[in-house]
Design a protein that fits this description.
Blueprint (H helix, E strand, L loop, with lengths): L1 H33 L23 H10 L10 H4 L2 H15 L4 H15 L3 H16 L9
Length: 145
């Protein structure tokens, strides 16, 4: 009977250690995700690129802006790539700029984004899902019904 109790205690101890480990792991992911939030609780936004002064036409400036919109994004940072609020906010910002662009500039910017996410199927799927939500669901600001 005493031997059985020792085995039960070992199982409980083992289960407890697993739960504590999972809690710590979950907490560390939450903290990593929280680093994408500014101190005021707002979602971090990528800075807009500076447009070179030598670009004079609106089309040149829009093409540059859209092609370099994602330059500040660290595509190798798993915390950024998995932070859905961060991705959603910045994709929304990208769409805001895209809505002001001509079709050639817009296509160039979209191609640049697709080339950046193409190597990561999970990120590509996330971006595609967010784009679908923003562009095709009637209640969103970018929907074109």
């Amino acid at each position: 009977m005493e031997k059985r109790t020792m085995n039960d205690l070992k199982k409980v101890r083992s289960s407890f250690l697993i739960l504590v480990s999972l809690f710590i792991l979950t907490l560390s992911f939450s903290m990593a995700s929280a680093t994408m939030r500014q101190e005021d609780g707002m979602v971090k936004e990528l800075p807009l690129p500076e447009i070179p002064e030598e670009l004079s036409t609106r089309e040149q400036k829009m093409t540059y802006l859209l092609n370099h919109f994602w330059d500040a994004m660290d595509w190798d940072d798993p915390a950024l790539k998995t932070d859905s609020l961060f991705l959603e906010q910045n994709l929304s910002n990208f769409f805001s700029v895209l809505a002001l662009a001509d079709s050639v500039s817009g296509q160039s910017g979209v191609n640049t984004l697709l080339n950046k996410v193409r190597q990561d199927p999970e990120l590509s799927e996330t971006i595609a899902g967010l784009a679908e939500t923003y562009l095709y669901i009637p209640s969103t600001p970018f929907s074109n019904s």
